[in-house]
Amino acid sequence: MTPLYPILAAQIARTGPMTIADYMALCLLHPEHGYYSTRDPLGAAGDFTTSPEISQMFGELIGLCLAQSWMDAGAPGSFVLAELGPGRGTLMADILRATRAVPGFHAAARVHLVEASAHLKQAQAETLGAFDPTWHDAVADLPEAPLFLIANEFLDALPIRQFLRSGDGWREKVVGLDGERLTFGLSDAAPYPLLADRLETTQDGDLIELCPQLPGVIEVLSNRIETHGGAALIIDYGDWHSLGDTFQALQNHQKVDPLAAPGQADLTAHVDFEAVARAARCAHTRLTQQGVFLERLGITPRAQTLANGLTGAALKSHIAAHRRLTHPDEMGTLFKVLGLYQGGRTPPPGLET
Ligand code: SAH
Questions:
Q1: Which of 42, 225, 339, 347 has an alpha carbon within 20 to 30 A of 276's alpha carbon?
Q2: CA distance 60 to 267
Q3: Is the pLDDT of residue 100 over 80?
Q4: Domains located in the chain, CATH noted
Q5: Ligand 1: which residue has its CA nearest to atom 20?
Q6: How far is the CA of 87 from the centre of ligand 1 (A)?
Q7: Going by CA atoms, what residue is nearest to atom 19 of ligand 1?
């Protein structure tokens, strides 16, 4: 039994079964026993890995993409360079290294990080301290200024609710107690006006997911972009239009039962990019596969240049990393990129309208 279990059990006993969103929020961000509050989950020794942790090439290309977007926006003399959920700070460090040679970019950039975990803030301070970053708990706290932003594997950590189509209504999937065990249950069917538009695209028995925080996050950052200029790259696993159960738990790089070890496994769900596009108050690009995006930005020539300096095991792992980021059987097609940019301006490189 994990330290979070009695807290969850007491709450369920007091107020009844909780939504998956409430369960996810407590498991991930409970200040004392939450997953992100207590550990660094990334890397080979952690529970999962991410593109920037696989290869420096990912952050380098993102950096150059954002720098080109900044130039296309007229190179504003002061702007916010932001990351949502920066993990260990690896991605932002690679972005900053790759853009050192872009005239005026560093002088104009103010680094802002949105991070909920005190533990990971500490790791970010170690990696990025030289750039004097400002931390925020929420996207709404980002300053009013031109905004160039990256969010890689951030939205998948935001809590989701799940609904099962039942006739013309919906039953919400909830987490309850069966004796001493956490278990999934279903609420009674109700109409849920919020889901009215999904009645046309689903059938009885279909399951859909809804991320309540997502529209607010996207609205805020896209308003900044539309008002002050800028661009955002949203990268994650997911697709256009959510359908089906994508709620998953990872521990030691293995899928596990999401109810088995609350607070000790990473919990995520696929991102519904249609919901991102719908919430955007600025222009958005077409949804593009990560492999295609990175190829367009020149990952293969960059990989060849880096390969020239490598031999043996280092070369092998470099080749594997390139494949992992781009190949359709690995992260190349599961992961997608959506760009947000100011209406009437050029979309970020590698993406199209
Ligand atoms: N972007 C990094 C890390 C992804 S892991 C990478 O690509 O390697 C998810 C990150 O989002 C972690 O830093 C986690 O602490 C942060 N996070 C999760 N939920 C959050 C929330 N609600 N608000 C702010 N940060 C959050």
A1: 42
A2: 28
A3: yes
A4: 36-159+211-289+336-341 (3.40.50.150)
A5: 116
A6: 6
A7: 157
